[in-house]
Amino acid sequence: MPRKSLKELCGILEPLEIVGRAENLISNLSCDSRRVEKDCLFFALQGGKLDGNQFIPRAVAAGAVAVVTERGNAPVPPGVSSILVENARAALAAASTAFYDHPTRSMQVIGITGTNGKTTTAYLVHSILQAAGRSGGLFGTVEYRIGDRVVPATNTTPESLDLQMFFDELRRNGRQHVVMEVSSHALEMHRVDYCRFALGVFTNLTRDHLDFHHTMDNYFAAKRKLFEGLKADPPEWAILNIDDPYGARLHRELSLRKLTYGFGDRAEVRATRIHYSFEGVRFTALTPQGELAVESPLVGPPNVYNILAAIAAAEAQDIDMPTIQTGIKNLRYVPGRFERVDCGQPFAVVVDYAHTDDALKNVITAARKLTKRKIITVFGCGGDRDRAKRPLMGEVAGRLSDLIILTSDNPRTEEPLRIIADTVVGLQKATDQYVVEPDRAKAIRRALEAAHEGDIVLLAGKGHETYQVVGDRILPFNDREVAREILVELGYDAHVCN
Questions:
Q1: Is the Cβ–Cβ distance between 198 and 108 less than 8 Å?
Q2: d(CA 328, CA 296)
Q3: Residue 339 pLDDT more than 90?
Q4: CA–CA separation, 28 vs 361, rounded Å?
């Protein structure tokens, strides 16, 4: 475990004021009073619901010898150093990278940002790197892979302290390559400050998180920060979806080396001769290195975009075409992304994380390419999030599906029926073929009971999640497991369930 002097760390924190001794040796950092150890530097962060300053006494009792705070009147007891800063989250990022001796300076980090496709693109790039013998870290919405160690994800992008600690672990184990999803929240909240990115990948930008960013301009500005460098040099390459208007804007405005991908003729990496099926996608990728025959078990048009992004990122990393082919083919599925549940039933059941109107449109459109029969969509909208997207999701689902079972997603502290009422406003603009069932398990059952041979039942919104947030409770709930259990109860074969 590294040790740094408080004085050395204060040099990068740019404190407004220091009260107390700056000669202490710091043996660990924490922004969680439950993880404080002896000789700790504690960061009192202001959260959405809790103020870290209220946990200063607990942190001191556990061994904190100094506290970083934004409050001049924070309850820091005598004998404990107090460091006043303008932004405690920015200070945490600065201290973390210094404490672990700037690990990304000796690593190849690929950052992927955008509204949709980040997770699948990250898994694809990681699989290609593995095929190239460059395996290392993967950080994203589903999980954090630190070499061979897997940690459940708490945020799409880890908090800056955890991130730098993971980077340090990878470096100490000789791993130099990292693929990570970089969320707009992470960019705004300083989680990736001081990270040196070799590549930045931009997938697309559609409406999401406006409860946090308020406007699309703010949302775009947050995403753009990845390509500008946050207290570090900007990426060497920008990999851009040129079909997306915001990707095209980045292409016009950025002065970095750029490689574009998409379906249109402007794209430097593009797809032709595309074939879709439930077994995956096949197409020819036209690239600066030449033509590449692509076979992937991943399903649907959105995954063609994700594969093109991964090809472009791999080419920018000088990975040869046979290795790229192998890495793409090796990725069998991504948890909760157009993931099939098969118990031998004569209709398809698909679980997907789609939780915005654009993502829902993409996944239903992908399903349409695979059947001429009915699409039955089960979905809901999250509580305590952007209310304005609820009718948009309702309208998209109603316009593109044959039957909708409208239910709960993660209602959080909102009344589920109020969320459903917001969504019905858009749904009724498009169809009257819908049923309201707030209980998600019952909604899934109704959809499966209504399905016939050749239909596709789409369970949208929760994807890889294994819980449902209701009020202040986190309840076990997994769309995949619930669907399997119901299919077996309906008489399908438990022994062949995937």
A1: yes
A2: 6
A3: yes
A4: 46
Question: In this predicted model, what pLDDT tens digit does every residue of 277-292 receive, in sequence order?
Answer: 999 999 999 999 999 9
C-beta neighbour count of 372 within 10 angstroms: 6
Q: Which among 123, 176, 132, 133 is positioned nearest to 321, based on CA atoms?
A: 132
Single-letter residue type at 461: G
Looking from the CA of 415 toward its CB, the CA atoms found within 13 Å total 4
Strands 257-262 and 339-340: unpaired
Q: Nearest 5°: phi and psi at 237?
A: -135, 145
Average pLDDT over residues 100-120: 96
Give the sign of the dihedral formed by CA 327, CA 328, CA 330, CA 332: positive
Strands (E), 114-198: 137-139, 143-146, 149-152, 177-181
- pLDDT tens for 47-83 read 877 899 999 999 999 999 999 999 989 999 999 999 9
Q: How far apart are alpha carbons 4 and 98 in whole angstroms?
A: 9
Q: Which helix (H) or strand (E) holds 281?
A: strand 280-287
Q: What is the C-alpha separation between 182 and 191, in angstroms, rounded?
A: 9
DSSP string, 366-423: HHHTT-SS-EEEEE---TTS-TTHHHHHHHHHHHH-SEEEE--S--BTS-HHHHHHHH
pLDDT digits (tens, 9 = 90+) for 113-152: 999 999 999 999 999 999 999 989 999 999 999 999 999 9
Residue with tokens 């095209």: 248
Distance CA 191, CA 111 (A): 13
